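Incident log, structure service

09:12 report received: a user says their structure output differs between two submissions of the same chain.
09:20 pulled the input from the user's history:
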Amino acid sequence: MSLALYPAINLGKTELKIRESISRLSTGLKILGESSGSLSQGITLNAEAKSNQSAISASEVGIDLLLAAEAALIELASLAERLREIGIADTDPTNDANDTAALNAEATSVSDTIDDIVTALKFNGVAILGTSSKTFAVVKDQDGNTTSVKTTDGITATNVSDATNANTAADTLLGEITESQGDVSAGIATLGAYRNASTSMKAIQLQSASRLMDTNFALETAKLLKNKLISSYANNMISEANKIEKDKLITLA
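09:34 re-ran on a clean worker, output below:
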């Protein structure tokens, strides 16, 4: 057997390893030349991470909707307190005709404002309060399952036309506002928990996909350098072995 065959036997394998290393370094994927299982798993995990991002986005939109409702409820509570004060002030026996007229005008104005906010307030074109219950389905996980959040069980229209008994209407309103605020707070806590869970899962999935698919550039560069040195050494050995064989032939001749 020719001496050149000894270093040449593994040269082909070394050249294949060099090409694989170059492919991994140029694409950033370590799975080239290895089992396709890692690629399949990595792709699945990346897809699940994207689904979790969609769930995160849905939760955040839902939270924004609830925060808008919360801000409106705080304002309604302030108006309801003022309406209550007007109703109590109307019972003062020292009021003259002008006082009563002023109280009636303010009571009507406050009542109209309250009813307008309840019926007209919208978030992204969707009414978020009203005289009846308002419930919204929000995506909560990567599988597209939903959870329900509520902004109100309904806020009855005050329909106050004067200050008389305005405080009674205000007390009813305050009770409904307080109940609605409880619904909103519960919804914010719920969506916040789902958002945080999806955020954690997304990070874990991306990290797992990275471990399966991404090239370790420092390690792959070291492998490439090593195999290039082996290839260079093998080629030199083949050249030297061929020279020795040639010299033998010359001597025999």
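09:41 both user submissions now match this output. Likely a transient worker issue. Closing.
09:42 reviewer note: Residues 4 and 164 are 112 Å apart (CA to CA). Residues 1-6 have pLDDT under 50 and may be disordered.
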